[in-house]
Specification:
Length: about 425
């Protein structure tokens, strides 16, 4: 009798279990193969890409439409120069060769510089004359560490470079490393000197071009290689000063501190758990399949584990459009890192520096980017497994009760016979 009940139990339970197992596998396979997880992953890439694209557009607009709008300042400096030439007579070269007159010219420039510093909401403004006295170049470099606020007077300004007479006249504070003139140690190719020499040499080599077409965006650098300078690096936008006779007599421009700049790229918006961040970098590589970005500025604590010291990042094209596999020699154990790269167009075509391409990059571990789709896959599997276990227990219980009653009925029937 027990053997008959066991046989009946198996005949009831096994087919139902097979149907349940088939349904579970079918549902799980249909969900995965039907593209639900693939679509979730595509959505994750799209949302990440849209955020990076938006920040890239905002930053490019700030750089081109506000910070670098210094045409009014350049015109004012040119007018001040022409006015002094008319007053003093002689040529521009003679004016530059006279230390007293060049200092007087710098004094005339101060109003234009400070007005631009306020109007453009930048962290620094400068003018450097191409009139070296030995190794010293006369000039002015003023800083405003909080460009969003504009108190009356000059209480928020600091002088990094300026003749003593000008700092006393303006009554501005002196930065700890203040100098009366620029000294470009390290030569023209040193990162901290390019903001001056690159546009200066470009103007000398391309006298037929407009000064604005010779403007240069300097990648992040420490001014004068001074790492204590306001605590962070700066990028600079500089334009050569060219006289009516074609003499290239200096460079003028603005700077943006790295701290202020990276406020425009909040890494937390990329990942609520701060596992992603933004990078700003520059490349000169012509191929788009693999590029090395240098002079990196990073925003996001998680980036330290992904890019190490952040000197350079090598990106290799991945399957998703605009996404690259990212690797840094300083972080060999970073795992699979992906970067969404969006290049900015800062230079016009056929200009000396168009080969330097700036990019905003959103960087994240691939596992963190696809965390939601992975969680969905695991939750789906867990839900199906749990429901199957509960179903099996229920089927076994019901089948046992049914076979027990059938067995009792069979016993009763035999007794009646």
């Amino acid at each position: 009798m027990k053997r008959a009940k066991a046989s009946l139990f198996k005949k009831i339970v096994f087919p139902i279990l097979l149907v349940m197992l088939f349904q579970a596998v079918l549902l799980y396979g249909t969900t995965l193969l039907g593209g639900a997880v693939t679509q979730l992953e595509a959505n994750a890439y799209d949302i990440f890409s849209e955020k990076v694209q938006g920040r890239k557009n905002d930053l490019q607009s700030e750089m081109l439409q506000r910070w670098s709008k210094i045409a009014e300042m350049l015109t004012g400096l040119q007018e001040d120069t022409e006015a002094m030439l008319a007053e003093q007579g002689g040529t521009l070269q003679e004016l530059m060769s006279d230390p007293d007159l060049s200092r007087q010219l710098l004094d005339e420039y101060t109003d234009e510089l400070i007005y631009t510093l306020r109007k453009n909401s930048v962290t620094g403004v400068f003018v450097v004359l191409n009139a070296p006295l030995g190794e010293k170049y006369p000039g002015i470099y003023l800083r405003d560490t909080d460009p969003e606020s504009n108190p009356s007077g000059y209480s928020d300004l600091q002088a990094l470079y300026a003749p003593p007479a000008i700092t006393q006249k303006l009554n501005v504070a002196l930065e700890a490393s203040w100098k009366s003139a620029f000294v470009f140690e390290g030569g023209e190719d040193d990162a901290s000197n390019r903001f001056f020499f690159r546009p200066l040499r470009a103007a000398q080599q391309h006298p037929e071009m407009e000064a604005e077409d010779l403007a240069y965006w300097s990648p992040p650098f420490y001014l004068g290689n001074n790492r204590d300078y306001a605590g962070n690096q700066v990028i600079a936008y500089s334009v050569p000063l060219v006289g009516a006779d074609g003499t290239v007599y200096g460079v003028a421009g603005i700077d943006i501190s790295s701290d202020y700049l990276m406020e425009k790229l909040p890494g937390k918006e990329l990942n609520s758990e701060n596992k992603a961040g933004y990078l700003l970098g520059v490349t000169t590589d012509e191929t788009v399949d693999q590029m090395t970005y240098r002079n990196l500025l990073a925003n996001g604590a998680a980036l330290r584990g992904m890019i190490g010291s952040g000197k350079e990042l090598v990106v290799t094209a991945a399957g998703q459009s605009g996404f690259y596999h990212a690797a840094s020699a300083d972080a060999p154990d970073a795992g699979e890192v992906v970067a969404c790269v969006r290049e900015m167009r800062l230079y016009s075509s056929n200009t000396p520096f168009e080969g330097e391409r700036w990019a905003v990059m959103g960087v994240v571990q691939k596992s963190d980017l696809l965390a939601f789709s992975s969680s969905f896959r695991m939750l789906l599997f867990a839900a199906l497994l749990l429901s199957s276990v509960v179903g099996v227990i229920g089927i076994v219980f019901v089948a046992r009760q049914a076979t027990k009653r059938i067995g009792s009925l069979a016993v009763n029937l035999r007794s009646a016979d």
